Amino acid sequence: MTSLQAGEKQPLTQTRLELRVQHDLPGLDVSLFALDGERQMSGDESIVFYNNPTLPGGGVSGQFGEREATFLLDLTKLQGVERLMLTASHDEWPLKRAGVLRAEVAGFSFEPLSALQNEKAAMLLELYRHRGEWKLAAVGQGFAGGLADLIGYFGGEVEEAAEEAPTQAAPPVPPPTPASSVSLVKVVSLSKPISLKKGEQVSLRKEDGAPDLDFLSMGLGWDAAGGRGSIDLDAGCLLFDEQFKHLETVFFMRLNSSNKSVRHSGDNLTGAGEGDDEVIFVELSKLPERAAHLVFVVNSFSGHNFSAVKRAFCRLFVTETKQELAHFDLSGGEATTGMLMSRLSRSAAGGGWQMTALGISAPAMTARGSIKRAQQELRDSR
C-alpha cells in the first residue's frame, strides 16, 4: 500500500475499483459526490451515502457500517460524471477528534487528519478524468461549517431554517364573528373517513365545533409493479410562507424541520410490507408563524415513472388514534417521476387549516426538485 500526501496525484490503471474508508469516530458520515468537470453536483441524487447507496444510472454502489464505508466503482458506467469526491463529515464534532481516518483505493492510502484542524467536513480523495484517463488525487481540504459548507461548495442547495416571527405583546383583537356563514368545504368527521378526489378540500376543524386537530400524519404507501426493478418512492413536505417563499424541505435527506414541527419517519427504499411505507408527522400548533402552506410530495428517486408503481396512496390521519380522515389514491400511474400529492393551507381570518387533494404531476427525483412546481400551484390556487 502506497501512502499519499495531501496534493499528491497518481494515475489509475483500473476501472473497477473498491474505495474504502475506515474510522473510529461515532456518528461520522462518509459520502461520495458525483460531480461535473467544475466540481458541481446536478442534484441530491448525485450524493451516494447511507440513505442513497447507489448512483442513478449505475457505476457506484456503497455499503455503510459503524466504522467503515465501502464503495464499489465501475468507472466505465459513469455517464456525465467527470469527478468522484470522497468526503467525511460530522454533525457535531471536528474530524480531528477521530483517532483513525483512512481512505484506500487501488493500492493507495491517504490519512488526512494531519492536514485538518477544527473542520467538521473534509474532502478526502478525488477520482477525476484527465484527457480521457482517470487519475487519483489526495485532497485533505476541510470545511469548518460541516456538511452544509461541503454541499454549498459543490453547488448544492442548503436548507435555511425558517425564521420565527417576533412574538407580539398582545394578540390582535379578532373581527366579530358573522351571525351566519355557509362553507362548501368538507369538515372533518371523526366517525368516518373522507375520500377526496383531485381538487377537493377538507377543513381540519371538527364538525362538532371542538378545537382544531393538531397532531396529523401524512402516510405514503406503494407496491412496485412486477418485473420492473426496484422502486424507491420518497415522501417529502415543502413549507412556504404566505407569499409562497420556500422556507424548508423535510425529506429523506433532512428528516426534521428546524423546530421539529414536521418530522419524517425515515427512508424506505423498496415499498416492501403493508400499510404506510413512509410517514410525515406534523404538529400544526408548533409550526412557525411564517409557515402558511405545506405541500406534500412524492418523488421517484430511482427514476422510475409512476406507471411502474401500483397501489400508491396518500392519506391524512390522526397521529395518536391512527383514524383516517382523508384518503387519496394515485390510480392510473402517470408517466412522471414526481407528484404534488396534497396541500395544507392556513385559512384566512383564523379559519384553521384546510387540506386539498392535488395529484399534480411535478417531474423530479427529489422533493427539492418539486419546489418551483409547488410554488406555481400555490400561485394558481389564489
UniProtKB/TrEMBL annotation:
Entry-linked InterPro entries: Stress/Tellurium_Resist, TerD
Residue ranges constituting the TerD domain according to the UniProt record: 26-152, 194-360
Highest taxon of source: Bacteria
Stated name of the protein: TerD domain-containing protein
Name of a matching Pfam family: TerD
PANTHER family: CAMP-BINDING PROTEIN 1-RELATED (PTHR32097:SF17)
